[in-house]
Amino acid sequence: MAGVGADGGGDTEMGGWSELLNTSTKLLEQAAPTPHFPTLQRNLDQLEVLSTKLKAKTIRAEAPSQSLSATRLLAREGINAEQLTRDLKSFELKTTFEDVFPSEATSVEEYLQQLHEMAIVSSIQGAQKDNLKSFNNYMMQVLEDDWQKEKRDFLQSLSRLSTLPKRNTNLAGGLSRYALMPSSASSPQASSGLPAAEVMPIPNKTIIDSKSSVYAGVVKDLNDARGRSLPFSPATAFRAAYESLSLDATGLKSVTMQKVWHLIQALVGEGLTHRNVSTKMSLVVGARRHLEWGHEKYIIETINSQPALAALGGSVGNLQKIRAFLRVRLRDHGVLDFDASDLRRQPPVDTTWQQIYFCLRTGYYDEARQVAQSSRAAYNFAPLLAEWITTNGAVSSETALTASEECEKMLRMGDRPGRPGYDRKKLLLYAIICGCRRQIDRLLKDLPTLFNTIEDFLWFKLSALREYSSASSSNVANEGLVPYMLEDLQNYLNKFEPSYYTKSGKDPLVYPYILLLSIQSLPAILYLSKEVGEEGYHVDAVHISITLADHGILPEGVGSGQKMGVMDACAEADSIIWQYGSIYLRNGNLDLALEYYAQAAAAMGGGEVSWIGQGNADQQRQRSSMLKQLLTEILLRDGGIQLLLGPSGMGEEGELKKYMMDWRSRQQFLLEAAHRCQEAGLYDKSVEIHKRVGAFAMALQTVNKCLSDAVCALAQNMLDGESRAVALIQSGNEILETARYSSEASVQDKDLISEQQIILRQLEAILHIYRLARAGQTVDALRETIKLPFLHLDPQSSNVSVDVFRNLSPHVQACVPDLLKVALNCMDNVRDTDGTLRAVKSKLFVGPVRLVGVKIRENCHFS
């Protein structure tokens, strides 16, 4: 209607309005008058004004009533609503009762009915979401398991491939990028046996390449030290090698590999001795020391973050650090007792138990004992703490009972009014001394928020656990003090999936870190070995295996629920190390393959003790068997003999002497390896090994076997037969020359050598006949054939009734049929002027060669 009174309206528009006015007038006349509504008359201008007012009123009515009410309220309070709207950064919308429940639901029954229906709908929706999430997680887990299985099968298929080399084959060409080796593994520098200091990472290397390089240097140093019976700390060396890479400088993850290596170093306790403590408990003590080291770093960081509040000053003592830390931690609780100057004022906060707890938590045991002995509040606790420190937690049953009774008293009493939380540290300390499973479980159940971090939780559990001994089992059972053991902690931690610890893979090292802290080293290694990614955690897993195996502690870290023996745990580590070394082998880097193979065999033998022969008989047998198997793999490769045996001898100048010091052991190993070479068809290597051992007769026997095959190939017109035969004859002559001047050959060996020499000469004569026949010199070939003494074809000699053919070597026997064929072919091409050839032919089928002659006659034509 805005255009009703507008200027410039056309005749058409006015005509329309006139028609509308006439229609309205007629309707008004037809309508019956009513007393309720008075008659109103408005012209067009008035209608336009009223329409405009009505539109403005409608717009105002559409605005939210809450906004208008708020604006009026702000105006009454003198607040500018427009300015408030501009300054407002955020707001919150809340539903009203009417938004949730209909206005009709005014009774209690209707309200409860609506509430019940909403609860059911919410439960159904929540269950649907949980089911969908569980289904997705299950499908992802199935896919991941399938992928891991495929990857494992593929890796195992690679490891099962024959380790026998193929001639002129590029072994490194088939390796894919997932492999454990760096691409430069077969470089001249890496395989030249340079010192570890020279095998350093270079720029533009991947993380896997860098780790492999520095770790390989440490493995070399480790093997060298063990071979020379020198002390060596592998955990310390591996940690230093990793830190030299500076890979954890960003600090985005809560657990880094540097932290894991420090834990490994603490677990094995290099440089430390734990007296009167079992291997398992020494691992527990090591894990606890690592957590204390981490808490000390946290305390120092806290003090440095607020130096004014900490007020450490020039004091550098451990107790002063703890008190400076407490000033920051308890800054909102008032004056602390060690800072109070005027005791007549408001009583200060008693921090006795806080000081003792944090001293122990940080590894300051002497300071904790000092605070307990000097405090009136902890006077009765001081002797209990002193015994716990002295015995590494193995307190007497009387001490444990006293601490248990004190725990019961505090749990019944609860937190005292006005002092919330401070006695909790006292409760924790008595629970640690007690070490009772029932008290610890009750404490954690009643106070679920007792620990802020999982490190605090694990430190408490590791400090409280005991080793259950049969000697004290009766006393413990009588008092009801069943100790909290390592298996209890492991079972509790294993109830949660790995994704719970790793935050669905965002912090991947947390789970293996937890496993290592709970002395489940083997599951931790297996978990890391499956993490084949850019971070190279599988490379770390191999060298963690080497470290723990070298210290002989892998059997103690199998974990709860795993029914594995000592050798099973060692075999797992051996398999991981061997598979890693086999990649070097396939790359052609025999030097590093040998280093890792030596560690794989040592893992089977119990680690360091296997190098010096201190392991038990079964471990020594397992190590020897594995070492022979792995060294044979290297020996069969191109360059393996040169690496293990050196330029000459049986290993005195090579690497073999480092792993087999006894001459007899080396000789037996090499003879077995040569036999395996023969079975695999690697005759050249078999001959070379037999020559190194001094078994010249066996070397000649192998040469004669190969020469026999070459002569037969020549008879079949194969092209490479003659060249191969010539090389073999030369090799046989060299063996005879070496044996002649060797002092190792006995009289019996010389007789065997003479027998093989005769066979060599017989085969050489047959080869000469073939050459003459192929050159067309049939008369000469026939003459040389008749001269062969073992055929007895001389027409002037009498027929031989004794079958001397049986005494021929099988290698010569294999050549006789083809030789006789050549002889017959020569006879066919020579004229028999005096009957000599007929006499020779007749001798082919009588006497010593009758059986062979029958076969020849079936396929030949005689003139």
TrEMBL record:
InterPro entries attached to this UniProt entry: Nucleoporin_int_Nup93/Nic96 (IPR007231)
A GO molecular function held by the record: structural constituent of nuclear pore
Main location: nucleus
Coiled-coil residues: none
BP terms from Gene Ontology: poly(A)+ mRNA export from nucleus; protein import into nucleus
One Gene Ontology cellular component: nuclear pore
Keywords, sorted A to Z: Membrane, mRNA transport, Nuclear pore complex, Nucleus, Protein transport, Translocation, Transport
Entry's localization field: Nucleus envelope; Nucleus, Nuclear pore complex
Family statement: Belongs to the nucleoporin interacting component (NIC) family.
Full protein name: Nuclear pore protein
Record organism: Triticum turgidum subsp. durum
Classification lineage: Eukaryota, Viridiplantae, Streptophyta, Embryophyta, Tracheophyta
